Amino acid sequence: MFGAELAIPSRQLLYYSTTTITTRWSNPILSPHPSSVFTGISSPLQIGLCRAAAAGKVIEEDVSKQKKTNAFEIESLTSWLLEQQRVGNLDAELTIVINSISLACKQIASLLQTANISKLTGSQGTINIQGENQAKLDVIANEVFCNCLRSTGLTGIIASEEEEAPIAVEETYSGNYTVVFDPIDGSSNIDTSLTTGSIFGIYDSSNNKLGVAESEQEPEESNSTPATLQQRKLDEKKQKTIVSVCQPGRNLLAAGYCMYSSSVVFVLSLGKGVFSFTLDPMYGEFILTQKNIQIPKSGNIYSFNESNYELWDDKLKKYIDDLKVSPAATPSGAKRYSARYIGCLVGEIHRTLLYGGIYGNPSNIKSKKGNLRLLYECAPMSYLVEQAGGKGSNGYQRILDIVPEEVHQRVPIFIGSPEEVAKLEKYLA
After folding, report:
1. Of 72, 110, 113, 263, which residue has the fewest beta carbons closer than 10 angstroms?
2. Is the dihedral of CA 114, 118, 119, 122 positive or negative?
3. For the Fructose-1-6-bisphosphatase class 1 C-terminal domain, which residue ranges apply (predicted)?
4. What's the predicted TM-score (pTM) here?
């Protein structure tokens, strides 16, 4: 009789034995026991069904645990860019260009970490186009950026703060993108291992319509020598290159920075919010750590180099003086401000994005046009801050609306929480 009850199809026997093993190992309470499991069950088939139901419950529990585990999955910069490409926020070519920039930042981060060991600190003994002493890593980082961008085959024009003029990349001149960058911001901090950074902005090379039309160009003279014609062609090419670079910040397709500090942080915007990625040294990948960063509407931190106080405009002095007044001496509701100054624009902006406040680098008697470069520093940073809900201004005009007149043009900048920048503009009006 008992043998007859066991005469069930082989497929059911296989399933029966499988569920028995699964149940025994995954849920000891439901495992078969000679003294209790078979109580009240009349046939092996019923036993199999009971065990199958128990196994199903275990599988559901495993899926639930798996869902909880997935909440801790990491997302790399590469996978994030591919997802942005899939939803149409950028194309495949721009993905490659941004990835090449992130690779350059990883290399620079590695160089900075071993700068003291590798004897890469100190001055290079050269002066850049800005009239500033170049640190050794200024020169090396510039080469790293240029090489990574050239390797993409998609970058047509490269403009660096360390170069006299923009570079038209011959082998990839048909590339669609113009990339502007400051390879190492705050290079004076290198020798003391303090915060430094890299800043970049990406434009469409065909976006700018400020160039000279071909019909308006001077015709070639019939008696011109081959050398003269070649020089003229080179001059025209250089002019087109400069025109492609001198775009207002509102034309930016993407912008970002990499901060080299206790962590290596890569902050990026594609025009749809600001995202932060932190370099995981174990994997060698930038991992998404903050989504849609929003700058506080106001803040109590101001960051100005007050050693230049006596060189500033009286209106700006009045603004700074009022920030220092004790709340006890002001109308109720006034807040106390704290002063912070890192000496690195990347570090200043990163803190301001997270905590709010205002950063200022104004013009003064010695630097009447300001100190920071519009193309390489002010425009990319203003783009990022605006994407986070903040504001960037020269005190009278939105930074992103300023059309560069030259590639190394300097401008004053006040950037940060919208309410704080608006407050300063009232003082300067």
Report:
1. 72
2. negative
3. 295-428
4. 0.78
